[in-house]
Each structure stands twice: as structure tokens, then as C-alpha cells.
Design a protein that fits this description.
Helices cover 82% and strands 0% of the residues. The chain is mainly α. Helix 5 packs parallel to helix 7 and helix 6 packs antiparallel against helix 7. The longest helix has 34 residues.
């Protein structure tokens, strides 16, 4: 809710500036209207729709307990409030839309990490395959590749959903969609090779 209020007080001046400057509404009336409507908007959105928060919390894969995504999300939202408040106090131009791009960029970095994990595990699995009959870690390496692909699938779905829900510029939307689709393809290819190795092990054991 704090982020919604921050977004409201940065957008409210733009919403009422024209009405005040053209004298359609008095300054006091416009400010009171903006205050009430921003409060109701934040309250009602929080009550009836939690999908955005759920989407953001699933954008990055966290290791550890189930509370880790919520902790990270709370920290990120708190940072947005602190930054927006500081920017308002010092008169620094800011935009919550830029925060969305930063969030998507962070998700891309996290998915890149999954690609790195999957490729490294696949590399080690291929190196280990020459003596698969006596290997004690080949199976774990194949599982690691499959897990990276599954985590990537979940992140890909969540991020693409978030992009379509929040990104207004079609060109930017297409760019991010292509980037994440390409990264997902890399993980799919890693899993295909890992599955091939697993099949060969089963046939020759």
C-alpha cells in the first residue's frame, strides 16, 4: 500500500495540474479530490486484486524457505518507498515505470543465472558421461539441469505475464518477450541434452 501511495502522490500533481491551471477547479478542491481518490484507489486495489504482488514475488527463484520471496518483495517495495520519498524531497525526477523496467532487468539477470547453472551442470555431466557406469554424481548433474529448466519455465511464465500486464509500449514489450523466449529456449535445449544422456544411461545399464 505504501508503494501505491507513493505512486499516487507522484502522479496526482499531473492529474490535477490542468484542472487548476485552467481554473476549472480550485486548488483546495482539486487537492482534496486527489487525496480521497488516491486513498480509495490504493485501498480498493489492495483489497480486490493481489495478482501483481503475487506475480512480482514469483519473478525470481529463491533458494531457502517459502518466506524468502515475501521477504525480498517487502525489501524491494520498501526501497521503492524510500527512493520515491527521497526523490520527492530533493526534487529529483523519478518514475515508477522505470522501476518496472528495473524489475524486469533483475528477472533477466536471475534467469541468466539459471542458464549458467544449467550449462555448467550439463558440461560436467558430459565430461562425467565417459564413465557413467561408475559415476556417483552424473545423476545429480542431470537432475540439476532439469531443475534449472523447471525454475526457468516458472520464471518465464511469470515475467511474460507481468510484462503484458504492465508494459504499455509495444516495442519494449516485444523486445523483452524475445529476450526471455530466447533464454527459455537455451534452458529447453540444455534439458533436451540432459534427457538424451539420461536415456543413454538407461539403455546401457
Amino acid at each position: 500500500m505504501g508503494v501505491m501511495f507513493v505512486n499516487g502522490w507522484t502522479d496526482a500533481p499531473n492529474a490535477i495540474a490542468t484542472a487548476i491551471s485552467t481554473r476549472v477547479m480550485g486548488t483546495r478542491t482539486a487537492i482534496i479530490m486527489a487525496t480521497i481518490l488516491n486513498f480509495l484507489g490504493a485501498l480498493l486495489l489492495t483489497m480486490i486484486n493481489s495478482q501483481v504482488a503475487e506475480t512480482i514475488s514469483k519473478m525470481v527463484v529463491f533458494e531457502g524457505g517459502a518466506s524468502q520471496p515475501q521477504i525480498a518483495l517487502a525489501a524491494a517495495l520498501f526501497s521503492i518507498v524510500v527512493w520515491a520519498t527521497g526523490a520527492w524531497y530533493f526534487g529529483i525526477p523519478t518514475s515508477e515505470s522505470h522501476a518496472l523496467i528495473a524489475g524486469i532487468t533483475g528477472a533477466a539477470l536471475a534467469m541468466g543465472k539459471l542458464i549458467l547453472i544449467g550449462c555448467e551442470a550439463l558440461y560436467d555431466a558430459i565430461a562425467e558421461f565417459s564413465h557413467f557406469k561408475n559415476s556417483k554424481k552424473l545423476s545429480d548433474l542431470i537432475i540439476s539441469v532439469n531443475k534449472a529448466e523447471e525454475d526457468g519455465d516458472r520464471m518465464h511464465r511469470s515475467v511474460i505475464k507481468a510484462i503484458y500486464q504492465n508494459e504499455k509500449d509495444p516495442i519494449t514489450l516485444i523486445k523483452w518477450k524475445e529476450i526471455f523466449n530466447a533464454m527459455e529456449t537455451v534452458l529447453d535445449d540444455c534439458e533436451d541434452v540432459a534427457d538424451l544422456l539420461d536415456g543413454l544411461i538407461i539403455k546401457n545399464t
